[in-house]
Design a protein that fits this description.
Number of domains: 1
Largest sheet: none
Strand content: under 5%
Structural class: mainly alpha
Order of helices and strands: HHHHH
Distance between the termini: 23 Å
Helix content: over 70%
Radius of gyration: 18 Å
């Protein structure tokens, strides 16, 4: 399987996850619970915009230039895996921290939210950096490929 195919197939998985989450968020009890924490909206937007849209665009670009050898297959694969691991980890952590924050808010313990979610927020930040590095590597590799 080519790198372009990997990006496109993975983007479709993120599309299904994002659509499913969007549908679930329309269910009143889930919607009301999710409104207690902005992390649910963040998880939904990241899985859609980075997972679905960005991965699909990267895959589309790879498919458009498929007859041209990649600048570096190694950099391409590294970017792909960094993006995917960062997206998946960030999504899961946002859901967990969102659940904790919403639960505390509903229980009337809003003052405890920051302390309870702080470790997750640090890991979310780290996963964001991993995503950025993966995106930079992918963009660099595509730029160098198109430029030669």
């Amino acid at each position: 399987m080519t790198l372009g195919e990997k990006f496109l197939k993975t983007s479709l998985i993120y599309f299904i996850i994002g659509i499913t989450m969007g549908v679930l968020l329309t269910v009143k009890p889930i919607h009301d619970f999710a409104l207690q924490s902005p992390l649910f909206a963040g998880a939904h937007s990241h899985i859609n915009l980075i997972g679905w849209v960005s991965m699909a665009i990267f895959g589309g670009i790879h498919m458009l230039i498929k007859d041209k050898p990649l600048h570096s297959e190694k950099i391409g694969n590294m970017g792909f895996w960094l993006l995917n691991s960062g997206i998946a980890i960030m999504y899961i952590l946002m859901l967990i921290a969102g659940y904790i924050g919403s639960s505390l808010s509903i229980e009337g313990n809003g003052a405890m939210i920051d302390a309870a979610t702080a470790p997750y927020m640090i890991l979310i930040m780290v996963s964001g950096i991993v995503i950025a590095i993966g995106a930079y590597l992918t963009a660099y590799n595509l730029f160098k490929t198109v430029s030669t």
